[in-house]
Amino acid sequence: MLASLLFLAPLALASPLYKRQSNTYPEPLQRGPPPRQPWIDTYNAAKAAGKIPSFAPARLNSDGVPFYSGGVATDDKGVCSWSQAHCFGDNDIYDAPDGMYAINFDDGPVPASIPLYNFLEKENQTGTHFLIGTNVVDYPDAFKKVLDIGGHVAVHTWSHPYMTTMDDMQVLGELGWTAQAIFDHSNGIVPAFWRPPYGDADARVRAIAEEVFGLKLVGWNRDSNDWCLNDNPGSACAAYGLSGASDLEAELRGWQTGAKSPGCIGLEHETGSLIVNAFISTYPGIKQHGWDARCVPDLFNLDWYQNGKNNDGPFDTSFVIGSGPDSNSTSSASSATSSASSSASTASVSSSGSARASSSATVSSAGVAVPSKDAQASTDKDSGASALSRSSLAGSVAVVGLVAVAALA
Ligand SMILES: [Zn+2]
Question: Active-site residue 247, yes or no?
Answer without folding.
Answer: no
